[in-house]
Amino acid sequence: MEIIVLLIAAIVFYIVGYKTHGRHISINLEVNSKEPTPAHLKKDGVDFVPAKLPILFGHHFASIAGAGPIVGPIIASGFGWFPVYLWLLIGAVFIGGVHDYTSIIASVRHEGKSIGEIIERYIGINGRRLFLAFAWSTLILVIAVFINIVADTFVRTPSAATSSLLFMLVAIVFGITSFKFRISTIKASFIAVPLLFFSVYIGNLFPLNINKETWQLIMFGYIFIASVTPVWLLLQPRDYLNSFLLYALMIGAFVGIFFASPNLHLPAFTSFSVKNLGYLFPVLFVTVACGAISGFHSLVSSGTTSKQLNKMVDAKRVGYGGMLLEGILAVLALFAVASLKPSEFDKFYELQLFVPAFAEGIGRFIESIPIVNISLDSARTFTSLAVSAFALTTLDTSTRLARFLFQESTDNPQENNTVTKNKKGSLFQNRFFATFITVLLGALLTFSGQSASLWPIFGSANQLLAAFALLSITTWLAHQKFPYFFTLIPTIFMFTVTSMALITLIYLNLFTERNYMLVAIAFSLLAISIIMCSKAYIQLRKVIIKNNKVQEEF
């Protein structure tokens, strides 16, 4: 079967989903353009800053995309392309898009606070503490792992390091001209975007060769600065401009597929059980995360995006639209490796060279475009640079999100004595101190050499975050007497697959791999999942009974 047919089918499915299911959610949540947002009500010039739709979409998409929608589908392709393709379509429209969109709306209607704040109000303060501690710990693990990924990329591809540094300089200038001098986004983009691609060219001419340890130290310094500076200076413009790299990559791949007309060489289905991967159910649903649904998205949606939302109606375009665009990227990643010859696919897969496999497939698509006349080597290099740029974007966004969670977790809103509260919380609420603690723990984990061993648990932990977010939103909707079945069903599904994945992980590591550390972590995650579900069930039952009594009285 030709890839172009399946790709067009996916795009049509996403567009229809956006127009129908997205509109259904907007109606149920009573979203309108007149409702004020925290970006205006709490504007502080640092975190709460209204952003124009293109800039906010660029930030949000760049933050959630990263390497997740590329690596996940490629790993899961061991089961064959059809199960992955089907999950990317259904998951993005009915679960991931719902999750991201409602996370933004819920946060905006709670003064821009994170999902943890919503959990406290509708499930309980202990649930909030569990969620915040779990989410913060997960982000520290993400920081440690991504520091290694970025450092390895810069060592292996020194040109990517030079380009990334130039990206930052261009982004800072863009931020200053847009925010301080009020130059329109369109005018500034006409200058900044060409400079962005020119940075790629300069990077190839002047590669920056530095050892891995030095890069790690530089990156820790960078993420500290990136987390405490105003969002308009670096975060917004960097993510907005970096999104053009991914747009160019996706457009190039799409056009290349038209000219190349590649066929699928990967089988539609291989086996229900794959060595070193596990069983199709539930492994598929925790391996393919970002392209279908990802808990990390709720942290971005309720962390940075909700604090920059200019108008309520932008939430659908940014949240639901961003998720569906990421779904298209994941589909492209799947087809990039599915187009490789079986011998090539097996070589990449066995060596776990997932990003190089993606670069090879996409590079061949782009090489097929006759108009631009790009060589395969140049296309591979550009693809690798784009992936590394987004890995770095995910890294600095994760650090800022971890800072938000640390500040929220040390802020006790139930403290009656305001003076005592301010004295106790002043240091922990300080953004420099909160960032320092986060970066310090990330550095300790990175240099301990243990972060890589925790990778198998990441998929389950990430999807458990998504289940928590959906659970809290469902409880909030029930309290507000809004329809909630469009979040309840995905909540039940995500808790089911996550619990099954954790049980499978416990069994394999207890009796086969003998990795008792992973067993302990998996047990902890399963226990947290059970506690959160039981607390939410009690609250939901109370709300439903109360609502039924009110209806009977009328």
- Average the pLDDT over all residues and give the rounded result: 86
Which strand order does the major sheet show? 1-2
- Sheet with the most strands, sense and barrel status: 2 strands, antiparallel
Poorly predicted sequence stretches spanning 5 or more consecutive residues? 415-424
**Shape assignment:** globular
Number of helices: 22
Give your account of this protein's structure.
- The protein has helices at 3-28, 38-41, 53-65, 68-76, 81-108, 115-122, 125-156, 158-179, 185-205, 212-228, 235-260, 280-287, 295-305, 314-338, 342-350, 354-367, 376-409, 418-429, 431-448, 455-479, 485-513, 516-553, and strands spanning 273-274, 278-279.
- It has 554 residues and is mainly alpha-helical.
- The chain has a two-stranded antiparallel sheet with strand order 1-2.
- A hairpin with a 3-residue loop joins strand 1 and strand 2 (278-279).
- Helix 8 (158-179) runs antiparallel to helix 9 (185-205).
- The protein is globular and about 70 Å long.
